[in-house]
Specification:
Helices cover about 40% and strands about 20% of the residues. Helix 2 runs parallel beside helix 4.
Length: about 180
């Protein structure tokens, strides 16, 4: 029993250090369906790294601000405003003395692309969730980027046709690769 006492004391002292860190995901307005998809993937990536995602920046250790168009935060940080369809801006800064990033899209698809890119970079991180997030402003060179699928082998196509998990993964990949048309 005496051997367990130092281990128990060490465990109790390490509990505050093991407490879940919190990230506030604050959205401006009601995001459209594509943006909600990207923000959901970002939440999943943050939870996979052990973060609790909240909507309030008051108690959080990190802050993510997300919205479409020009925002006060982007103007304060002197970040470029995304202009046009599917354009995006990801910008690092501080919000209420906390590390923060602003995700902004020219529209809901642009915000989705910003959130998916950030989710990918959060998955690479080891401690700081914003470790690999970089300041960027992008606008698509081509307006239409698509995939066309043909059903040459009926049996192979039908084997995937009824697999909901396959299509979910497939369309998630298309969204992450910024493909905006599927025929």
């Amino acid at each position: 029993m005496r051997r367990l006492a130092p281990i128990a004391a060490l465990f109790l002292l390490s509990l505050p250090a093991m407490a879940a860190r919190q990230i506030a995901l604050v959205t401006e307005g009601e995001p459209g369906p594509p943006a909600r998809h990207g923000l959901a993937k970002l939440r999943e990536a943050l939870r996979a790294k052990g973060f609790d995602v909240t909507a309030s920046a008051a108690q959080a250790d990190y802050v993510i601000l997300a919205g479409t168009g020009a925002s006060d935060t982007l103007q304060q940080w002197k970040a470029p405003v995304p202009a046009g369809r599917e354009a995006l801006t990801i910008w690092r800064g501080r919000y209420r003395n906390k590390p923060a990033i602003a995700l902004s899209g020219g529209d809901a698809c642009g915000l989705m692309y910003a959130a998916l890119d950030t989710a990918d970079r959060v998955a690479w991180s080891t401690g700081d969730p914003f470790q690999y997030v970089r300041n960027t402003t992008e606008k698509p060179y081509l307006a239409e980027r698509g995939i066309s699928m043909y059903t040459m082998q009926r049996a192979y196509f039908e084997s995937r046709l009824y697999d909901e998990a396959h299509w979910k993964r497939y369309f998630d990949t298309l969204a992450a690769d910024r493909i905006n048309s599927f025929v």
